[in-house]
Write a structure and sequence with these properties.
about 350 residues
Amino acid sequence: MRSIWNGAISFGLVSIPIKLVNATENHSIHFRQIHLADGGRIRYRKVCELDEEEVSGGEIGKAYEDADGTMIPITDEDLAQLPLPTAKTIEIVAFVPADEIDPLQMDAAYYLSANGVPAAKPYTLLREALKRSNKVAVAKYALRGRERLGMLRVVDDVIAMHGLLWPDEIRAPEGVAPDSDVTVRDAELDLADALMDTLGEVDMDSLHDDYREAVEELIAAKASGEAVQPSESEDSGGGKVIDLIAALESSVRAAKKSRGEGEGEAESEEDMADVHPIKKKATPRKTAPQKSSPKSTGGKKSTASTAKKTTQKKTTSKSTSSASSSKGTSSANSAKKRTSSGSRSTTKKKTAAPRKRASA
């Protein structure tokens, strides 16, 4: 990468020769201005107001315009003679926790590269010191004709510098917040939290500029003579007053669906809503036949099962087993008579009680 500035980092009495390299690049698509009548390109020419003649870059200098319109010429030599210690030096003035830097101050980003073999040792020392301290360095430096504020931090194995705006360049947010008092309910906050949890995290490398890709496709289509079909944009409901709760709930569902988490959930919830009350009603029907089996299997099977249960719990005399079996048979016969006149569920409850006493 091409360096845009050469200088040194001043770290106390330690000087680290470095090169400044741009850490970012602009991928925006640039357009030219043309004359609509014939497609000719529109160019800007630098013309002197006095003689109305075009001048070249070598004939152009800089000047400061006073309040009354007077031009005060300022040369590069004048600026070079200023007592500016940061003209070729990134001067570290403090080390502070990273959270003390307001993100609003963040400006351009650069990589600092060690300039030459002798700079490798002090460069590595500063890098490792920043890592171990979990702090960032606040520094001053001069670039493009003005002194600037910077923040040095470690990115992988490289020292990066973020240009910072001066504190007095940050405007106070006066008149930006809503004028009226707004009350947010706990239910709305809960839905907002649910939406945040559903959206979750994102791999920053997966994000890209959809608009730039659409412009590139548009240019390619027009260059090949293809017809450009307008895309249908989704209605975001901008500016409309909506039900906040309903909007949050819809947003949660849409976020789940986009992540593939909501597929089939609605159907499963509806199925559970239909099946759940049926399971509650059917519960006594599943347990009752085991207790009132004499209705379907007859007195002999009931007698055998009753005798088997009493034998497993406690060994008793043969007379007790026969007595319990006769009681089970008589209760089964009475259950059959009651079934014809009353409901089946009532008969189950009444026939189950004598069996419990017999087994006891």
